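Feature request disguised as a bug: please show the residue count (182) next to Lipoprotein in the output. Example input:
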Amino acid sequence: MNGCGDTKQTPQQLPSTSHSQSPSPANPHGEALKCLVEGSPWEADTERLARETVERISMGQLKDFHTTGAATLTVDEELRARYAQDTTTTASMDLPAGQSLTSVVHTKGTVTGTWTEEDGKLVPTSGWDSTLTSTHTTTGGGQSSTATTQDDGIDKKPVTFTCTKDALTLTMQGSKFTIPFR
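Example output, currently without the count:
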């Protein structure tokens, strides 16, 4: 019936019925990677991230706290990533000695580069570019100081991640802090 569009299969084309070969294992992290890419762009939960950070380093009773601005992570099929942030967080607290302290942190810039996936971690390849900086201004006890730092982040260390349809969490290797996204 070669004239009807059917082709004759040779023995080399027939599927193997042998059980001696095991199928190649599926990538156990494939669904999480798919979720990471398909959910992109991700909006960081900057309020939650800032609150957790302030609470971990707090030296007194937190009395006022707010964050403005946004942070976004975009990841494509090649695991090329772009993280952009422009946020200002203000925290006021009462110190044990009866003084108050106000801290304002303005973080701004972008981080761009490519990850590879290794055992469920996003590992930065060479060639990342970062302009992300934070300016910290602290006022208390009649004194004020300002310092600007270059932020270490997703471009420096492997990142573990969990991803569901509605949420993404990144944790840098060696860090207690997580970055929550929605």
